[in-house]
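Researcher: I'm preparing a figure for a lab meeting and need a structural model of a single chain. I don't have an experimental structure, so a prediction will have to do for now. The sequence is pasted below. Please return the structure as tokens so I can convert it later.
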Amino acid sequence: MTQPTLIRRVSGEQPRLLDTALMLARHGIPSLPLRAGKVPFGNCPACTANACGGRPNMKTPGACQCPTPCHAWAAATTDPQILTSPAWVAAWRRAAAVAYHPGGAGVTVVDLDDAAAVAWARASLPATRTVPTTRGQHWIYQGTMRSVNAVRPGIDIKSTMAYARWLGPGTGSTIALPAAVRSLAVKEPPTVRRAPQALTALPRGGQGECRHRRPAYLERGITMAEQRITEARSAVHTTVYRTFLAVLSTHGRCGCLTDTHMQRLFTAAQAKGETARHCADAWTNALTTLGL
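Model: Understood. Here is the structure written out token by token.
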């Protein structure tokens, strides 16, 4: 395939990632770069600590007008001028992978994280287009729904307000989103304990003294925590738990920690092989240890 002139101008190690993003754009699939660890790039200076209004206002990709790939999935775009702009080219040079916004492409991804999850899907869900992943498969259905993590052990649903790594077109025929998948988002998984209703809850007491009056302090702490998890070479379970414990001990009592910060840590942990359930258990154990 002949590369467009704009791609030829991109230097560095990752011109093929931009190639892929432009190919996806031609097919109406909004994409964005991922850095090492399969996580999005941090917000630009104008959007640091969600100064621009933040993710709750980002209902569709491209809602933020900043020049860099901001706000994770909400950065996803099909605009080739944005994808090849100087700020994005700088990100592509440092990127490790391409992600896309399933909801923006009109699809839902059932992310099966391991062999057990794949076996369950084969027995419980209608066959559709499948894409192999490092440990499991993505099952792709036509249609959108809300994204939900840990609907069953090792299974996440990624559609609206989420991103999935682009791993190729896959094989098989994409079928319409079935009720069996939609029901996963409303049924309580039978293997999940009822007690941890606050598995994803954050301490909101706000009674402690805020030690990070400047937003940059909190942002730096979360970034360092992500890096610590990403760089773990062994004892990943222990590293994740101790990192969660450190973050909560520093930022957990004043109410400044948000669900977005927690999800960033969960994403980093899952990129190292942790399941969503393991992340939730580690987070809950850290809260309990600290009396939060």
